[in-house]
Every structure is written in C-alpha cells, then in structure tokens.
Structures
1.
Amino acid sequence: MTETSELANVGPPDTRLWEQIAQGDHAAFTELFERHAEAVWNYAYRLTASWSQAEDLLSATFLTAWRKRGDAQLVRDSALPWLYTVTANRARTEWRAKRRALRLVSKLTPQDERDHADDVAARTDARRRLVQVVAAIAKLPNSEREIAQLCLLGDVSVSDAATLLGITESSVRARVSRTRARLRDLTPEDNA
C-alpha cells in the first residue's frame, strides 16, 4: 500500500484526473490506470486466489471506471476505494455465476467422472488458506462482507471505509472486530 500511496502523490491528484477523464481524456485515464492497476490487481487476487481471475477483474474494473467516468464518489481525493468497491462487486457477481454453472455441471456429470481441477488448483497451503478465507467472506452478511473486502483484504483505512459506506468510524471498527471473530469461526484453525 505504501508504493501505491507514493505513486498517488506523483502527478495530479485523482480528483483532477477524474475530472479530466469525465471529459473523455484518455491520457488522464491511462495515468489513473498506471497509478492504481497494481493495487487493484493485488486486491482482486486476494478476493479470488486466482491470477487469471485477478487479471479479468482488473480489466473489468477499469472498463467500468471508464464507462462510469464522472459518476464515482472519490474518498479523500483517491479513486482507489471506489475501484476496490467495483472490483469486489464484480468478483461477487462472477462468483455467483460460477457457482450456478458448477451446480448445473454437477447435476449433468456422473459422480465418478467429475473433474478434480479444484483439488489441483489448491495444492499449496497458502493458496488453500486464501481460498478458505475468500469462501468464508462470501458467507458473511453483506455489511460484514463489505468490511472484510475493504478493510481486511483491501487495506482501506477505517476512516476511508466509514466515508465510503456512510457510517461512523466506530461502527466500522466494531464491524471489523465482529468480522474477524466470524472469520475465525468459519475457517479451520489447523490452517491458521
């Protein structure tokens, strides 16, 4: 996050870039992309535990940013919290679609012929743990899931999350604490 913060201080602030982007300035959009692409990709990877899905989410997030140029609410002159929110929403939508598709495939495929790609994909302990945490986050109620995605996975500060969600900082801190406790209950301790 430090590298991203340092990059954000180089050149015009995000608010000025966003104003230029709203006018259709491709160079300003390129600068915004270069400034935040790595942070958005890292956040997308933490949400999905997949390099290719993180790439897809990065592209989809910035495509959404271009389409919604001028409509975003920037927090503390930074586009990053808004980009994180778009990324989380896209990831949630894709996760639901995959879940529906997997249910359909499992109904159509005999039990002994199923593809074990998930077992192969989760071989390393770190990747398996990340998949478990992402799955646990998906089970949380909406308010706690938002907090987990913003504050725990996205490293968004308590004050920025409060501004973005329109609630007090003490509410954010309480939700972070409650969310951490729920995640401990939802994830096996032997992998911690």
2.
Amino acid sequence: MSKRKIQSYEFDGVLLGVVAILLVYGFLSLYSATFYVGDVLWHKQLVWIGISVVAGYAMFKIPYPVWQKLALLMMALNLLVLLVTVLFAKPSLGATRGLVDLSESTRDLGNLFGLGSSIQPGVTARLVSVIYIAAWLASKGDQLSNVRYGLFPFGVIIGLVAGLVMLQPDLSTALLIAVTGVAMFFFAGGDPIQIFFSLAIGGGTFGALAWNMPHARERLETYVQSLTDPEAMTYQVRRSVQAISQGGIFGEGLGNGRMKFGYLPVTWTDSIFAVVGEEGGLIACLLVLALFIVFAYRGYRVTLGTPDAFGSLVAFGITTMVLTEALMNVMVMTGLFPPTGTALPFFSYGGTQMLMTLSGVGLLLGVSRGRPKGDWDAALDRWWRDGRTRLSRSGRRTGFARHRA
C-alpha cells in the first residue's frame, strides 16, 4: 500500500470548522479587548496563532501511534523542565511559571520574533500528561481494577505532575491536570469506588495545600462569603458580571464595550469572556458556549468511534482538557467558581496556551481520520522493536473502549 493511500483517510471536518470559528472569533475578541493599549498584544497573538496552526498541522500529519511510542520520553522531559522552572525560574507576580524569561536581558530577542516573554511548562504539561496517561492506561487493560497496578501508580503520576505545577504556584492548572487525568482513568475502566476514595483523598490534600497558601485562602474565603453576599465578590468577578449584564441580549457591538477601558482587569486573558458578553450580549455568550458544546460532541464522537485504546483515550483526554478549561473560565467570570486565573481556549492571550491547544486539536483531528495501516505500522514497529517499550500494543482495548465493540 502506498503512503498516499495511507494518509487519505477522512477527518472530522465539522470539528475543524468549529475550531476555525472559535479561533477567528477569539482573535477578533482579543483585538477588541486590546486595541486601545496598542498593537503589541494582538500582533504577538497573531504570530503565535500562525506557529500553533503549523504545529497543529504537524500533529495531524504524524500518525498518532508515534506519540504513544514517545509518551514516556515526553513526560520525562516535561517533568525535568517543570523541576527546573520551580527551582531556578525568576518569579513574576508571585509565581514562577515561565521557564524562559525574555522580559529583561533577552527582551530584544523575544520582541524580534514576536513570541512574548516566556514559555510555561505548566501549560505544556497538560497536553503531555494527556498523551502519557493515554499511553499508560492503554497498556494496563484489566489491571486497572487492581490497586497495586492501577490506582496507586496512577496517583503517583498525577501527584508528581500536579505537585510540581502547584509549587510554581499554579493551582488552576494543577487542578485541570488532575481533573482531566481522573476523567481519563474513569473512562478507561477504573473502579468507581477506588476513584471515589481517590477523589476524597486528593481533594482533601489539594484543599489543605490551597488553604495554606495565603492568596488561595483569601480567594476561597471571599468566594464562600459571596455565596450569601454578592457584594463580597472580588473586584474582577464583580466587574465581569457587570460587563456581561450591561451587554443585554444583543450587546454593545464589537469594539464598543466600555468596561475594558480600565474597569475590567486583564481583559486579554482571564476576563475576555466578559468582553464577549458586553459587546455581543447574551447571544454571543450562548454562541460561544454552543461552539464549545459542539466541540465536545465531535471530540467525544471521535473518542467513541476510535477502535484502539490509545487513540480513544487521547481523543477523550484532549476533548476533556479543552472543555474543562473553558468551563472553568466561564464559571469564574460569572461568579460560579472561585477565581483561578484560567484562560478561555482560543480566546485568551498566551503563546504557550495557544500552541498546546491547537497542537491538541491537530492530534484530535489525526485520531479522527483513523489509525494508519500497512507501511506506517510496519515502520513504527521496526523503529521501536529494539527499544522494548513498556507500553502494550495500542490495538488492545481497555475499559469502556472494550465495551463499545
């Protein structure tokens, strides 16, 4: 079989169309939220979108079983980079999230390429964790129900990655990594009772750690108080709710919002959904939510239509990764969840964020076109045969993937 025939599989065009709409609308919203402070932010975002589209296309073209082979190496490198970030990176606004700081001595280099000021390993850990956990779960099969081979090592994996991210500190990203990982474990066929107890233990540990961080404790206390007294909301959330309510049904019109002029903090990252609500009204908010719902439907449709365990699990993980982040951002901006600093995928400013999101989408689209047969599989097997990977063949099904047949 020729390589041309191998790569001629159809992919999910509807999913690609939804992502394109989200990307275009997100960029227009970012432009509207930042044009009054100059063109630097939206220029950089445009550059990162271009880079991310190329990366997503590469992820789409490379047969997805390759990432199963590279999962262990990717995770080891990401853990090393996370450790270096925690130990050696320079703090910025009370956190050490950026590995490469281009804001001082190398500012000119960063501005030359329009790439912003830093690379955030905590953000890259989300996609790397999805790939590694999918590969790890695909190798376990029926052993997932055994605490010794399933839940315990899985807890170590999640705890190690999320723990290093929390030390930056970046509680929201750590929480998203843990939630996505647990959802993948459940989907793969993990014992619900074990998952319940692990959630209780993990949730208690996370809560205790957050409570001992002054900034996190203040946010939690303020959020609990705001449940009975809306006036106790943080300034950002209160302004966000005000901006959305001022938009009414049809909004003020794109570019005509007023809350972004010094009233609404960080309009280009956390608060961009509030800008969408003010300028597009309830219609725009529902449209954005509907687009993410369609994204979730198509992503989980790819999950259920993929016959091998790794492909199914990685599609489930990427879809859940994007969906949980979007849901958390919207809930924070409407006062339904404690402030976290979570971005809105496809909308918020951020190079690493955009790169990981579109790379994940490219991989998801690659899974949607099916597993390559013939020459690609043979080449992969020959390439990896001497490595004696610990991962099982991805044709083996696990958990819910077994029961879909």
3.
Amino acid sequence: MKKLVATVICMILGGCMSIYSQNLPINIAHRGACAYLPEHTLPAKALAYGMEADFIEQDVVLTKDNHALVIHDIHLDTVTDVANRFPGRARDDGRYYALDFTLAEIKTLKACERFEPASGTAVFAGRFPVWKSDFRLHTLQEEIELIQGLNKSTGKNIGIYPEIKDPAWHLEQGRDISKIVLQILEEYGYKTAQDNIYLQCFDFAELKRIKNELKCELKLIQLIEEDCDVAEVASYAVGIGPWIKQIITGLDKEGTPVISDLVARAHQHKLMVHPYTFRADALPEGVCTELLLDTLFNKIGVDGIFSDFPDVSRKFIRNQVKKP
C-alpha cells in the first residue's frame, strides 16, 4: 500500500521523485548538458535540469579574490576569450589561470564551446558553434541557487555533484580550496550524508583530508584514472569514479566488450561506481551507444554515469536498465 501511495503521489506531482530513489542507476549531467550548450554555463545547467538529470556536476577552481568559479580547468583559455581580452596576462607557460583574475574580470569574458587554444578549433566539432550567442562563467553559489530555485519552483529534487579541482596546486599557490568549497556547501544546506550531494576529487590525499581533518560528512567519491586499492578507498569514501576505459578495456575478436574486475572489486567493498564519461559523439571504435550503456548497466552493474548527453542516458536508464 505504501508503495502504491508513493507511486500515485509521484504521478500527481509530475514525477518530482528523482529516478535514483527507485534503485536505478543515477544519471549525472557532466558539466551540464554540455553536448548541446557550452560546458559549465548556466544555460547548459538549466537544460540538464530540464532533461531531468538526477545530479548536475560542478567543477570548481578559485579566482584571484577567492571566489569559487565553476569551470573544468584551472585555465581560462580553453573556453573563454581571455587571451584577446587580457593579452599579456598569461604566465610563463603561456596559459591564463583563473587564479590570476578577479571574479569581476572573469565576468567580462565571453565563454564558448571548448576549443584548442593553439588552433581555435572546437574539440567536439558537431556541438554548439564556437563564439556564437552570449555565454558567461559563474560562481558555485550562482549555480546552487539556480538548481535549488528550480527544485522549489518545479517540486523536483535534483542534486549537485561538485568536484574540487587541483587542490594540491591551489595549496602551492597559498589557497585552501577545499575549506572554501565546504564552507559554501554548508551555507547552502549541504552538510550530511543524507543531503542530495556527492563531493568528488581526484586527489587521494586531499579526499582523505576532507574526510578526516576537515570532518566532512558528505558522500565522498574518489575519482580515479588508474587502478587503486578499493579497500583503502572504502575507508573514507562511498564510491569511485573511474574512466569508462578502466571498466571496458576493449573489444575481443568477436566484438564483445572486455570487462575488467574493477567494478566487482569495488562492489565487494560496498563502494558505488560512477564512471565517466558517456559521449554519444565520441564512442570507442566498434562500440555503439546501445552496446556501451547495456554493458555498463546491465552486464557490469555500475551505479550511475557521468553523461554529456543526459537525455540519452536518462532514456536508457528508465527504459532499458533491468530493474533490481
């Protein structure tokens, strides 16, 4: 009876109960709906929300005046016109760092689809045209307010999935990015493991510090680029975020995916697995969307996915993932 009542309420409210509450894998909008609009812009996040992603990702770096900026890199020159607007402000390596600019300066920059700084060509040729329309960068607070505002106005409950970028580099520059991000999250009500948030980082030592020294109670995800000691990770995190190629290592002679034991080992230690990144326009040779998602969800049993195409992954999860 309780299940029936919950189902009826969900139908009445237009599906306000997130799909991940139904024991299905979670669908994480990677940098927003970045297959359709420039990554980490508020329009891309609003579109991801409209596509009913369960979580929306925020990569976070710091500005010169210690604002938490949502952008994938510590550099500005792959997604903005900083080189044209502020010539001469690059470091000795020729790169333009967010940490060298105030938020007010960054707000004057035009953002666009990711491109190669040397050539100016788009990384993904079929996506939103470079330098078209008017997009800007924004702060973590601005994005949280957008998502929380939409949660209030729609009755849905979409979560956030921030990543602390390059904490060791920030510390070398005299900035403790983790403390700043955690303070912002707490101010917006993200304090405990029950809150609708995952916090991720590639830095093993920093994620341990966040858990043990900074006493963070949020659900922590250890991002990884190569194999790791999953038993150790389980001592401070609730899950891992591996590269898809760490899970599906290739195809055999018959075209069948070759699967590693990483997910099985992680699940043995009660760790969730949220691999990155599903890109329907950049699939491995010989692999189609259907084969990739079916292998990840139905054969391997991953617990979620980072997706540039949150509408495509959402449709597969809701219609083709085998129910537990």
4.
Amino acid sequence: MWRKLVSIMRFETLGPGGKANPLKRRPAPAATALVETAFAPNPGNLRMFSYLPPGIKAGAPLVVLLHGCGQTAAGYCLGTGWNELAGRLGFAVLAAEQKAVNNPNTCFDWFLPDDIARGVGEAASIAAMIQTMLDAHKLDARRVFITGLSAGGAMTAAMLASYPELFAGGAIIAGLPYGAAANVREALESMRSAPLRTPRQWGDAVRAASDFKGPWPRISIWHGGMDATVNLTNAQASVAQWADVHGLELTAAKPQQVDGAIRLSWGDTLEVYTLPALGHGTPIASRDAGTPMPFILEAGISSSSRIAEFWGLTEKAAKPKPVRIVPPVEPPVEQPVEQPAVVEQTTLPQIEAALGMADEPPTVRRNRIEDLIRRALTAAGLVKKR
C-alpha cells in the first residue's frame, strides 16, 4: 500500500507518461538564494531554509512555504516566485524541506497523525522553524502566513488546524482538507475523492486540533479543474471546512472571473480559485513572478501574487470582472439517507457551473470524474492501459 501511495505521488514530480518536464531550470539568482538555517527542536527531522531580502526591516511579515512531492525548498521558491515577491514587498521567506529518510518521495507526511498533530513530528518542526525566524530576525508574529502545493498543501491545512494561533492566513494549492486521512489507505482514497462529510464535521476536525477559539486565519484555496492527482472534491471539502470554521454560509459566495479562473469569495476571509483547464500544480504567470517547471504551471495567473494580495501583503490588483454563474439545473447525486446534507453543502454548484458541468446529467458528471481518476491511476502504473 505504501508503494502505491509513493507511485501516485511520484506522478506529481513527472509529466504525463512519467516523462520529466523538458523545461530547463535556470539557477536561482544569488540575491534570492535560500540559506539553510539551524533550528530546534526538530522532532520531524526536517530541513529549514530562509531568505531575507536586502534591506528588510524589523517587524516584517513572514511567508512559510511547503513544497510538493519530489520538489525541493529552493526549487519551489524559484518556481512560484515567492522570493521575487519578498524582494518587492519586503517580507521574509521560510521554506521547510522534507528528507527522503522520512518519506521516499520527499512528500510531507500529511496523512500520519504523529506528524500533523500539535506538538509532534513534522508539524512541531515547522512550528519551531517559525519561532526561530521570528526570534532571530524580529519579524511580526501577527503577520505569519503559510502556503504549499499538493502534499505541502495538505500539510499547510494541518498547520493551520494544529497551530492556528501562529498564522494570519494560509493558502492550500491542489491540497486536501485537514483530517482527510489518517493512514496510507485513506490517503489514497482521499486523493481520488474527498471523504463525504458535512461542513460541520469538517469544521469540527479543525476545532478539535487545538484549544484555539479564534480569530481564525484567512484562507485561500486553489485547484485545477483537470487535476488528475488530487481530485477537485478536495478543494470543495476544504472550502466547506473553513467556511464552517469561520461561520460562513456557503451560498453567500461572490462569484468573479479573474484571468480565466473562477473565484468565489467570502469577503476577505475565504476564497477559492478554480482553473478549469489546469492540471495538478501551482499556477503562475511568469511575466509577473516565477519560472515554469514540473508542477509549477504557466497559467496566465499568478497564484503567488494573488495570494499575497489576499493576505494584505501587496496593493490590490485590477478589480476582478464579475461573472454570472447559474446554479445547476440537475439535482445533486442521491446519497444515503443518513447523510442528506453532505452533497448539497460540499458539491459547491458554483464550481461545477464554472467548469461547464452545471447542465450535465449526474451520470455524465460521475463519468467525467471517474475518467480523471482512471487517467491518474494509469499514469501512475496502477492499472493497465486499454
């Protein structure tokens, strides 16, 4: 079972068919290079890297980055452009890095209880890194933010749940909600389709992770509509989780169109971007910041810049163009009687409508989802090609 999870996660680090992305990586400019930093305690046996742009002042914000499977801290910083933004906007960067001795494909262990709970494992190591940065550089403890991709996105959700008092905001990219899995088997199942739970159940998982009572971090969620590695239902579940934690009505979302992406927002508290044609990866606009590489995907929209804006680290970009999204005509897919509210509240009809699924019969929608899963398993070598 472990080998299956590694195989699927290995699909993140390679292109379709298992071939490496042909794009050449350019070396990180010396001015934005990460520096490995010592810290303690380190129960999760992780590595810590940091970047402080020239001229950074005491009281600056801190952005924490968690890479995806097969990636490195330096590669993720370079690809996503966060170090570039740090130089422009004046914040510090902390990038955690997994070791192969902990996970053979260098994925953060987002599905192991001993690594995501408060005070233990990898979560405790990341918390210690943050405190080291705050103390060493006199950064603003009220403006600490965290984001990550895929396994790093799922670990971001775990940090936001287990250490919410540390963060003013977070961003989950192609990740999974906190509490989606507690072992390898559940991790595989959750990647294929998020567990079916009510918003209250998802929210309870976060509330049970610590004794924190709020105010809760503001949350940005990004996911590709064609993601065949981590199913889109995980973005829907993440939205349900944090809407419940913040006490928001899912139906109160404001729909907008932003550079080809569909954005649903609940003021400055919660937002979700769905990119209909995007696969598995972090979307960037290299004209703005970042460099395309495996699973750092040119998409014409910079998730890093938009997230920084949402967190209040930069001036607002051009006002998004409003778009009218019609709720789906078809009723939700029938579910067992004991869970009557789950599909209605976690499917998010606005997202289905944005992806062109609103007018499709339930059977067609199911077939599309099953086809995405089948393609992911085929690429991972878990099923034979037809």
